[in-house]
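Morning F.,

Quick status update on the modeling queue. The single chain you submitted on Monday has been processed. Sequence for confirmation:
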Amino acid sequence: MKRGVHKPPEPDDPLCCCEYVDRKGGRNHVAACCCDCEDLDDACDRWLKREAQKPDSLSRVVDSVSDRLRVPWIQGAKRVDLSLLPPLVLLPVLLRIAALHILLGVVVLTALPGLVLWYYYFTHRKKGRTLFFLSLALFSLGYMYYLFITEIVPSGDVTSTQLATVTMGVILTLVSLVHTKRGPGYVKPRLSETHSTVTYHSPLPDKDSSHLNGTRHQVVIANRGTAVLEHKTSDGAVEEVPSGQMGSKKKSWCPWCRTVRPPRAGHCRICSACIQRLDHHCVWINSCVGRANHRSFLMTLLLFLLTSLYGISLVLRTVCPRQNVLIALLYCPGVYSQYSSALCFTCAWYSSIVTGGMLHLLVLQLINVSYNVTEREARLALRDKTGRTLLWGLIIDTGVYSQSFRHNWAEFLTMADNNDPSERSPPAFTELV
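C-alpha cells below.
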C-alpha cells in the first residue's frame, strides 16, 4: 500500500489553527493523528509477525506520538509535551491513595520524592529538556490551593484576611515566576570578536596530534586581523590569547555558540546557549538562572516558602485544632477518622516535604551570594580542587570574586541586566512554559 506524502506548507498558504508542520517537514492536521504512522505500523507488523524490533523502534514511536499530540492554536497547532501529563494524573491519585490509611501515606510520601529524584538524575544524565518538573511545581501549587479553597475554607476556621493573604501569596509567586522565565541573560555575539577565518598549520582538527601543555591548539585569524592561539579548557570552552601576549588576560571562546563569553559566563548544554553569570539550570522553572533573573529567582523561592509555610499552618490549625502547629505535623490523633481531614493532613505533609527542599535550595543560594560564587563556579572548584570548603561542604569559597559580605550582596543586588529590550521582544505565553 502506497502511503500519502505530506507536502511542505507554501509560503503564501498559512497554517490554520488545526494544522502544523511535523518533524519530517510535511504539512499535517491534528485530525489525522492516527493516519500514516509508518513507525507505529512497522512496530506492530514486527510484533504480529513475532520478529525482533529495531533498536530505535520504541524511541521512533514515542517521537511520532509526541509530535502528533497537539492542540489547536493561533497560526498552527501547538505541540503538547508528554512530560506535562504525568504530574496532572499521578499527583492527585497518589495523594488520595495516601489519605486512605496512615501506612499508605507513609509509603506514598516516601516513594514520591524518591521517584522525582530518580527522574531528575535520569534526565540530567541525558542533558535533555523536560517540562515534568515545571508541570509538577505549578500543578502542586494549584492543587494545594484548590484543596485549601474546597476543604479548609468551608470549615469556617479561616478568616477572609487569611484567605486573601494566601491568595495574594500564590499570585505574587506566579508573577515572580513569570518574571524569572523572561530570560536569564543570554550572551549576544559581537561581530568585532567573531572569528572570520580559521587557518590550520597541520592536519585537520579531528586528526591534530600536536599539543600545547597537554591540550590541542590551533591558529585562528580573527576579524581584528591578529593571530589568535586557542586551547581547550576543562569545561569544553576554548580560551584565546593573541599571538605574542601569552601573559595577557584570556578570553573564553564558546565552540558551540561560536562567540566570546564575558567573565563568569557559561554554556548550558540543556538550553544550548551561553548565559551571563551562569549559576545553574533549574529544572523547576525549565530555564537557566543567570545574571538577568537570579534576583527574581530568589524572590520566587522566598514568596513560595512564605506562602507554603503560612498555608500549612492554617491547614494544621483546622484539622488538628487541639495540637500545636509544630507538633500537629507529627502527632494528630483522629485525623484519619474522616477522609476530608486525612486528605488535608496528607497534603500538608506533601507541602512540608516540598517546602523543605525549596528551603535547602534557598539557603544554598544565599550562602553562594554571600561568598560571591555561582553554583557552576562551586562545582568547577570542587572538581578541580581549587576551592575552600567549610561546614562539611555546605560553603564553597573559590576566593576569586569574593571581597566582603556587604560588598558581595551590594554587587548582587545592583548588578546590571544587560538584556537589550529592543533586541528581545516580550515572550509569548507558550514561550514562558
